[in-house]
Design brief:
alpha/beta, 10 strands, Rossmann fold, binds NADP nicotinamide-adenine-dinucleotide phosphate
Length: about 210
């Protein structure tokens, strides 16, 4: 599978390593694809990797991952070109964290909208699945916790099934599917709580696990 990842930060690099190490070809997209940190990432990552612009990464991927700063989602869509997402599974990892009042953050979308919904609205032909946004990048691939399930949502059942297969490859037990993409509001609202918990325990690799 060819995977296009929009982003050059820790999430893009962690998921890029994960996808590449499981036999996929990965292209990371950035406004400055030639920067040193991405050259280093390519040297370390196992498998087939490349870098390019947002537009190149989006058109490259059979699957496209959003891993940009929450406030940059619209800009990333504009730079990538909305047509490149049509018909594709789009994994959205982003969070609308609002640091305008400092730490800890709030949500700039409020609770009546979300970035997951915004991406789905702007890309109506894409099959958007919200995933990975509730866990730190260090745990996205090989979470290091037996039986852990990812919280996901999205409108397209087949796209969610594909994402669950990816999660299982990445070492997750599976996913808890919260429903349609509007549930992104609550997946995203979970993250300011995660930030507060991580700050209070001084453990930025911590994650929540659902006990059954
Ligand atoms: N860090 C984590 O552990 C974690 C965990 C779960 C979810 N998330 C979410 O995942 C997303 C990525 O997080 P991150 O920590 O990897 O990186 P980040 O610092 O939040 O975002 C970096 C990416 O955003 C892009 N970006 C920033 N401003 C932009 C603009 N004006 N226009 C277009 N692109 C812009 C950068 O593009 P360039 O490459 O061009 O610089 C870069 O690729 C965020 O939404 C975050 O909330 C993060």
């Amino acid at each position: 599978m060819k995977v296009g990842i929009l982003g050059s930060g820790d999430v893009a690099k962690a998921l890029g390593r994960g996808f590449a190490s499981h036999g996929n070809s990965v292209k990371l997209g950035s406004r400055t694809p030639d920067i040193e940190k991405l050259k280093e990432w390519r040297k370390e990552a196992q498998g087939e990797t490349s870098t390019g612009t947002f537009a190149e990464a989006a058109s490259y991927g059979d699957i496209v991952v959003f891993a940009v700063l929450g406030t940059a989602v619209d800009e990333a869509i504009n730079l990538a070109g909305p047509k490149s997402f049509a018909g594709k599974v789009v994994i959205d990892t982003t969070n609308p964290l609002d640091f305008s009042k400092g730490m800890p953050p709030g949500l700039f979308t409020g609770l009546t909208d979300s970035l997951g919904e915004r991406i789905q609205r702007e890309l109506p032909q894409a099959k958007v699945v919200k995933c990975f946004n509730t866990v730190p990048n260090s745990r996205m691939v090989n979470p290091g916790e037996k039986g852990a399930e990812m919280l996901i949502c999205g409108n397209n059942p087949e796209a969610k099934r594909q994402v669950v297969q990816i999660l299982k490859q990445f070492g997750w037990a599976g996913a808890i599917d919260l429903g349609g993409i509007a549930e992104s509001r609550w997946l995203e609202a979970f993250v300011p709580l995660w930030v507060r918990t991580a700050a209070s325990t001084n453990n930025w690799n911590s994650m929540f696990k659902v006990l059954h």
